[in-house]
Amino acid sequence: MKPRPVPQRPESLRFIHQQQTIDTLAVAKESLDALNDDYCDLDHTNNPRLNTRPYEGAVLFGIEDDKHLPDRGFALLHSEAYDLDRGARLNFYKGAIDNKRVILSQTAIAETLKDSQKNRDQSFHSSKMNPTGQIVWGQPLLRNDQNVGVVQLAYTINENPDWTYPSNEAVDKIWENHQRPMAEVARSLADLALKTNSLSKSLEILPPVTPNSFVIQWDVVNSRRDAMSSNYAAQEAYLESWKAARAEITDGSGARILDRGDGEFIILPINQRDLNNTAAVGQYSKREIMPIVNELVKKHAEIAAAYFPDLYKKIKVTVGAGNIEDDQDGRPNGQVLYELKNLADSSAKPLAFSPSAEKLLF
Question: Is the distance from CB of 152 to CB of 138 less than 8 angstroms?
Fold first, then answer.
């Protein structure tokens, strides 16, 4: 018997395959490449006798206009220096920036957006995400006085003492020569954003790599068996009692709760100012997260004992760290939630930690 053919949807139903999207990205790429060529030439002029130069390339970031994704930008296109060593100098971009959203306040883009509202006497900034590796220069893209994007140049630092970096004046002068095509890019991005609730999601951009939350998941083991038996009433009472106890444990922690009936995700946000400070996040995790985890395990054992022998309740607790963003219904979502589901299914331990959480907790 022949397999049934899989129904094919028209590609035009995917936002990234629609003609306006294709045209917008093509024009933006052409304009960014032309801009990048001139900055490569400037870099060569400043360092004529060197084979390797500090300039890395230009990135076009979009600014997300989605009420459920505040403080978000996204890397849309990249044009790299033509003489760039393709090795380690691109690793940071590929791992943390390429085709990903970024938390604007945790990047130098935030400084660029501030600069656009005052005299631009200083356009270079240290990279917040890669402070020991890069300095960056940024220029906002405006449409009707609204920020719709940022062009950011990246320069490697501290690799060669003979490198000569360009002045603000030299970089600004090249930008002025490209203002008209980049204004067209801004217009096209603004028009494209009108077609969707979330431009970054419709363009299939990945979420940020920077963790902004710890997540604790608890899940009742074999809950379906009791729910489908004469123990259902006892299970209801047990869950009411356990969730009330959990609420007392997390009260005052700022936690958001995603209730799944016989389990919950407890989402604990990391302080915004500490997101790029691994040491501060580690201290917070040991001071705040682990006491909650330990208390959950201890208190559940007490609650479960009260319902024995009618019920023999056990839970699995998994702990992770990752980026949480709201979906279009305002509910928290993120890859870390699925990571914890998989961890709960695969681990035989009653308490398990994801690799990202282990790095911060232990």
Answer: yes
